Amino acid sequence: MRRPRLAEFAARNKQREYFSNVKLLTFMFQLLSMGLVLLNSRQSLNVNTLVFTGLLIGLTYLSNVLVMRYTKGDNYLIMIANMLFSIGIVMLYRINPALGQRQLLFYALGIAVFYASYYFLKYTGRFWQNKTFLFLGLSVAMLLVTLVFGRTLGGATNWIGVGNVQFQPSEFTKITFAFFIAAFYANHDFFQKKLGGSLFLMGATYLLIGIFFLQGELGTAVVFFAAMICAMIAFDKSRLLLAANIGLAFAGLYLAYLLFDHIQVRFDIWLDPWADPDGKGYQILQSLFAIASGGLFGRGIGLGSPGSIPLAHSDFIFASIIEEMGIFMGIAISLLYLIVFYRGLKISLAQPNRFYKVLSLVISMMFAAQAAIVIGGVLKLIPLTGMVLPFMAHGGSSLLSSFILLGVLQYSSIEQYPEVELEDEE
Predict the structure, then answer these.
(1) What are the pLDDT digits (tens) for 95-117?
(2) pLDDT tens per residue across span 366-395
């Protein structure tokens, strides 16, 4: 039964008020932080800086407006992503203006693929619900192509070069893998009768994880495992298989530690970085020093030394942000990722279509797992994995794949947050 028309007006006005506050908060952060970058970094106020700041504010504002006008669903998702992106790109521009400008270009492309994903599913949504083997095949193919033809950087073979363009297929494999799990549970009865049910899902997932280990891509393997476990907890009745998977995870990790040197190095650095403070342990130690020097409120934007941290613009951008913006900003970032996960769970619970119910849960878990793995590695709570924070760190592949997944989540949220119709009813 529909709510009264007066209540609909009240709900819409309240929603607009919330959105206006979020847009104002994002605008104020962008304006003030860019001002501090110029002031404290002693960068000259030139045309490039003004154009960059104008485009940053304009693009984020435009995306916030368009999502309310042209999409249904949970419009807070894009606003949270925009806030995360704004924090990240300010730090990137502070470290190296060229990195910030490049990331802004990828952001414009990311917003485009966000809307493209939403409208693509709007017109083809039901077509993909039984394409389990297609998504599995695409996932395996992308990883095998990377394994055979990819470049090895930082101990991981996860880069493909096409001309002057470098990208990471593993980032886009997250999309096909999420769709694979959703299609599997949408057609669970078929797989239960013909292919062993959840054993098929486990076998396929461990195949992909095995390829990741051959590539040296430990972080994405953990994200895939977390997504599978989360789906099994929610949609699988067998608790024995769940326990078996957890046991297999520890056994596989121990085996990987014995077989792969780069994994041994990461564990050794995690256990005792002081054993080689000027070599293998240098990166994590500089990260911890930066976090400690930042304190609760940070040293101030432009007053820190992020250049002392290797890969401060990508793997360790979280440490760079805390050094200059403080531990409270680090907590705020963690809460933003937690809100994305929470809203994804709500979308999954409200979604009546089983395919998109599973898909929403898996995507939410991927965002949460990736953020937790990166933040945990930077804080030396777990070994480093080489992953980057979604929406924040430098990198086109990560940013584009994250916005595609966000667009899918936006489409999946239509059932929970339908567009409020304000016309008179007959």
Answers:
(1) 999 999 999 999 999 999 999 99
(2) 999 999 999 999 999 999 888 899 999 998
Closest CA to 301 of 50, 31, 101: 31
Is 194 within 8 Å of 122 (Cβ atoms)?
no
Q: State which H helix or E strand residue 156 sits in.
A: strand 156-162
pLDDT of residue 423: 34
What are residue 343's phi and psi, to 5 degrees? Answer: -70, -35
Euclidean distance between CA atoms 153 and 395, whole angstroms? 14
Q: What region, left, alpha or beta, does residue 326 occupy, with left being phi > 0 and alpha being psi -120 to 50 degrees? A: left
| Integer Cα distance of 259 and 377 in angstroms | 22
Instruction: Show contacts of 5-13: CB within 8 Å, 24+ apart.
Output: 5/422, 5/424, 5/425, 8/420, 8/421, 8/422, 9/422, 11/420, 12/420, 12/422
What six digits make up the tokens of 17? 């008020």
Distance CA 169, CA 150 (A): 9
- With tokens 């860019």, the residue in question is 34
Residues 6+ apart with CB under 8 A from 91: 306, 313, 317, 320, 321, 324
pTM of the model: 0.92
| Cβ neighbours for 186, distance < 8 A, ≥ 6 positions apart | 129, 130, 354, 355, 358
Q: Which residue has the tokens 């590695």?
A: 377
Euclidean distance between CA atoms 110 and 402, whole angstroms:
8
Alpha-carbon span 138 to 19, nearest angstrom: 38
The token duo for 222 is: 């953990």
